[in-house]
TrEMBL record, chain A:
Entry GO CC: NADH dehydrogenase complex
Keyword terms, alphabetized: Membrane, NAD, Translocase, Transmembrane, Transmembrane helix, Transport
Organism: freshwater metagenome
Example GO biological process: ATP synthesis coupled electron transport
PANTHER family (UniProt xref): NADH DEHYDROGENASE SUBUNIT 4L-RELATED, NADH-UBIQUINONE OXIDOREDUCTASE SUBUNIT ND4L
Lineage: unclassified sequences, metagenomes, ecological metagenomes
Name by which UniProt lists this protein: Unannotated protein
Length: 99, 263
């Protein structure tokens, strides 16, 4: 098996994540799709680290994980805050600036 | 070395088997995440994708990242997601109606274009050299190798990221902090309110749910003396979820009061 197959899988997962962010309306599912995209990028980093034979890619993937963890914490806090004031977790209901 | 394919070397047969079993499953799970209606099911499928990715990391000579992936993602992040789902309401299923007209076909077309572009790009790319493999870099152990990089080349980003983590934790605490709008009533105030209110109906407390001896779970309203269901006896959130059962289905059959004629 060619190790580039991991890169194909990563590209497909990233695409699915991107579609999910656009199509789904539940803020939590949108967030999970963002996580999926970050994870797909991580898989690419790890694969390239293996192809190039140094560990820099793995360290960058590690940093990505930390940033993703921060993003989840703050994002979910925002979702809870919006849910408290609008009683809805749908991204369409948070449209106060539009009106 | 052919110029057409990204020459990254052949992997051993066991890894190929692992990949060809797990990769389609991962792809299907990710696709299912997109298609299922309930957010909880999405979360379960997401957890599967995370674990599969951890296995891929370990197979690719990144055991440290594989373990971190399981601990951080399936342990902490998915936990947090499920926790928020519980808070927001498990059955807050997506209304799968389109709010922006024509969004879905456009999104799918764009995704096909983007995915096709990425895949064809990867298929046509050349690296200019064969794969090195991470074995040499891992010679002193994967964790030791990463630690050496992390605390030499990347020590500044490492410190910045730690500041980011603390900031995020504080930010989440500030955002999720809940201010009470009015003072919490004391026991004394509650009982004064109960007895000085306009009626004394609830002075002795609300009726307990359940139909005596037939079904005493909290989802069945109690029966009033006239045989009707008492709305005050079941929890309001159960009512809102539509989980309240009809007490009439636990009634005994009508009792035949006629005396049987003796033969």
């Amino acid at each position: 098996m060619n190790a580039a197959n991991y890169l194909y899988l990563s590209a497909l997962l990233f695409t699915i994540g991107a579609v999910g962010v656009v199509v789904r309306r539940n803020a939590i599912v949108v967030f999970m799709c963002v996580e999926l995209m970050l994870n797909a990028a991580n898989l690419s980093f790890v694969t390239f680290s293996r192809i190039n034979g140094d560990l820099n890619g793995q360290v960058i993937a590690f940093f990505t994980m930390v940033v993703a963890a921060c993003e989840v914490v703050v994002g979910l806090a925002i979702i809870v805050t919006i849910y408290r004031s609008r009683r809805s977790a749908s991204v369409d209901d948070a449209s106060l600036l539009k009106r | 070395m052919s110029d057409l394919a990204l020459q990254v070397g052949q992997t051993a047969a066991p890894e190929a088997t692992l990949f060809w079993i797990l990769a389609p499953l991962t792809f299907i799970a990710a696709l299912g995440m997109l298609l299922v209606k309930k957010a909880v099911h999405s979360a379960i499928l997401m957890a599967f994708v995370m674990v599969a990715l951890a296995i891929f990391y370990i197979a690719q000579g990144a055991p440290f990242l594989g373990i971190v992936q399981i601990v951080v993602y399936t342990g902490a992040v998915m936990m947090l997601f499920l926790f928020i789902l519980m808070l927001v309401g498990v059955d807050s299923s997506d209304s799968l109606t389109e709010t922006i007209r024509g969004l879905r076909p456009i999104a799918i077309t764009a995704a096909l274009g983007f995915g096709g572009l990425m895949v064809s790009l990867l298929a046509r790319a050349t690296l200019g050299r064969t794969a090195v493999g991470v074995e040499a870099a891992n010679a002193n152990g994967n964790v030791e190798g990463i630690a050496q990089l992390l605390f030499s080349t990347f020590v500044w980003p490492f410190e910045v990221v730690s500041a980011l983590l603390i900031t995020a934790a504080l930010g989440a605490m500030v955002l999720a902090h809940h201010h009470r709008i009015q003072e919490r009533p004391t026991q004394r105030q509650l009982s004064i309110e109960r007895f000085r209110g306009e009626s004394l109906a609830s002075a002795a407390g609300l009726p307990a749910p359940g139909v005596f001896a037939r079904h005493n779970a909290v989802d069945v309203p109690a029966l009033l003396p006239d045989g009707t269901a008492s709305a005050a006896s079941v929890n309001a959130s159960l009512k809102a979820r539509g989980d309240v059962l009809d007490p009439s289905q636990f009634e005994l059959g009508t009792i035949d009061t006629r005396v049987e004629e003796e033969k």
